[in-house]
Amino acid sequence: METIKKNLTERRSRSMIQITDPRIEGYLMKLQPEDDAQILAMEEKAREMKFPIIDRLVGRFLHLLTRLKQPKLVVELGSGFGYSALWFARALGEGAKVVLTEYAEKNIAYARQMFEEEGLADKAEFRVGNALEIGQEYDNIDILFIDIDKYQYPAALEAMLPRLAQNALVIADNTLWYGRVVEENSNKDSEAVKRFNELMFSRSDFFTTIVPLRDGVLLSYRI
Ligand SMILES: C[S@@+](CC[C@H](N)C(=O)[O-])C[C@H]1O[C@@H](n2cnc3c(N)ncnc32)[C@H](O)[C@@H]1O
Asked: What processes in GO biological process is this protein linked to (predicted)?
């Protein structure tokens, strides 16, 4: 049993590539202090639960993109307990909103509480259920953020393309998938991430790049 566990651990660590050198990540984190109570509480909760949030570096990046883009409607596929959505919401202007979608009701309840404490509940819609189904209820989406289970990325793209506004921005997290995109022995998540990246880069109606920040953030602008 111990040997099996050891082999599994070794195989896992072999198949994880930290995209950015940890010393650089540490340096970047030090440059980006945070004193917002809700952001700090959510980061602490993620650490305790080992819950995969986008993290502060990507949060700030999304926040900046949102300020530049000034969207009226942001739709998030896979909101967890609302950390990434809070970064969007804090950057939204008058009358704009972010739609949170998430399977787990208790995560959405926590997100709502955090948004209320932050005074931003009026900038959000909190939806429990399948993100792909809920997402399709919206039109003219200015920013689509994809952070659901990785095997669903290509299907999410197909479902959501007709719902995007002209000049929409598609943002997807984990598009380097801890380096598994360069491995030969991949599984269905890795295959889906690779297919999703190829789909996005092959489209002439989108201009796409991947920023190798944390686990790779894909940005795709609809021309
Ligand atoms: C990586 S976490 C999201 C983290 C969040 N974006 C953040 O950074 O704060 C992915 C979440 O998506 C949810 N999820 C995965 N597939 C989903 C689907 N099809 N519909 C709704 N939620 C989904 C999971 O329950 C999980 O909470």
From this structure: methylation
